[in-house]
Amino acid sequence: MPSVVKINVLTVPAEQREVLEQRFASRAGAVEGSDGFEWFELLRPLEGTDQYLVYTRWRSEEDFQAWMNGSMKAAHQGGGGQGGGEGGERPKPAASGSTLWSFEVVQQASPKN
């Protein structure tokens, strides 16, 4: 069964780029322990766009959905009690927009040894 790739396209204003990158850096293993997780990359745009790409690869659609409905949902609802917001307020999102693209891996290659 082929892996599935999810690319979250985040529109990030220039003044929020550092905030977004710091938030991802501090996520410290939030997805790596999830069943079926295979790969993560945060891709910063170099030119011509203000859109970051959050690339994740999963063993199956079911594994992705389980993560979305479990630990990811809890993290984005402020679960886990890791603080960060004073007076119970959530920090303002760094991205002004988000689109999720879904793909199935039909071919792949790795470097030759």
The N- and C-terminal alpha carbons lie at a distance of 26 Å
- The strand line-up of the biggest sheet is 2-3-1-4
Overall pLDDT: 86
Count of discrete alpha- or pi-helical segments spanning 4 or more residues: 2
Order of helices and strands: EHEEHE
Explain how this protein is built.
With 113 residues, the protein is of the alpha+beta class. The chain is 22% helix and 27% strand. It is built from two helices and four strands. The chain has a four-stranded antiparallel β-sheet. The longest helix is centred in the middle third of the chain and has 16 residues.
Describe this structure in a few short sentences.
With 113 residues, the chain is an alpha+beta fold.
Give the key terms.
113 residues, four-stranded antiparallel sheet, alpha+beta, 27% strand
Topology:
Blueprint: E1 4-11, H1 17-25, E2 37-43, E3 51-58, H2 61-76, E4 97-104
Antiparallel strand pairs: 1-3, 1-4, 2-3
